[in-house]
Amino acid sequence: SQQGEEDPQALSIQEGENATMNCSYKTSINNLQWYRQNSGRGLVHLILIRSNEREKHSGRLRVTLDTSKKSSSLLITASRAADTASYFCATDGRDSSYKLIFGSGTRLLVRP
Amino acid sequence: EAGVTQFPSHSVIEKGQTVTLRCDPISGHDNLYWYRRVMGKEIKFLLHFVKESKQDESGMPNNRFLAERTGGTYSTLKVQPAELEDSGVYFCASSLSGRSYEQYFGPGTRLTVT
Q1: Strands B10-13, B109-113: pairing kind
Q2: How far apart, in Å, are the Cα atoms of B32 and each of A33, A64, B3, B51, B102?
Q3: pLDDT tens-digit readout, B1-48
Q4: Which one has a higher pLDDT value, A1 or A12?
Q5: Is B107 on the interface with A (CB under 8 A)?
Q6: B window 77-96, beta carbon within 8 A of A
Q7: Which of residues A49 and A98 earns the better pLDDT score?
Q8: How far off is chain A from B71, nearest CA to CA, in Å?
Q9: CA-CA distances (angstroms) from residue A80 to A22, A85, A108, A112?
Q10: What pLDDT is attached to residue B100?
Q11: A56-62 long-range CB contacts below 8 Å, 24 or more apart?
């Protein structure tokens, strides 16, 4: 299995609902980041949480990090159709901060 | 400020042909990275340049792949000869020195090998 596995693989919700995606990883990390990829476009950085942080907010995004469980969650509140995209978590390790390790992503569909 | 740009956005080639992908990092970013996502799987690291030097090419799948960054500016990734399993999206990213984890990604090049 891979570092940075997301769960679920696919999520379909109604506009206005909240979406929660989870990510698990295996090794010690410096940072954990969440990215979004809209269809046919590049990766857009959403939020970074450091290993000594437990929670971080940015607009409608809320990220938590539990280093004891090696897991993180991304919550998108009051979802919009424009949030439809694939979401990836990425970690960088203590011994190779330049090498981001991505999971396979969660495909989010927000139905209008 | 211009972001990371990649060219072409999409390339369709036949098995056995050669393709060269180009990446222009953000101006002033010494670090440049290549990643790829194959068949809807996870995005995987290919290699890392610091200026013109390859720091880590441990993710390069085989010797059919050659990356260069002459002059420490733009980078090219050549696949020769291309195989079917090389199909996927190739991403380039760049970052400032000392902030290697803060990588800015380009839009990617979608490579289709038929």
Answers
A1: parallel
A2: 18, 29, 13, 8, 11
A3: 679 999 999 999 999 999 999 999 999 999 999 999 987 788 999 999
A4: A12
A5: yes
A6: 91, 93, 95
A7: A49
A8: 21
A9: 19, 11, 11, 7
A10: 80
A11: A61/A34
Rounded to the nearest 5 percent, the helix, strand and coil shares of chain B are 5, 50, 45
Helices of type H across chain B: none
SS3 category, B6? strand
Copy the structure tokens of residue A85: 């995209």
Q: Please list, residue by residue across A23-53, b when 16 or more beta carbons sit within 10 angstroms of its beta carbon and e when fewer do.
A: bbbeeebbbbbbbbbeeeebbeebbbbeeee
**Nearest to B17, CA basis, from B67, B62, B78:** B78
Angle at B106 between CA A6 and CA A81, to 5 degrees: 55
A110: tokens are 């927000």
* Residue type present at position B104: Y
Contact B56 A101 (CB under 8 A): no
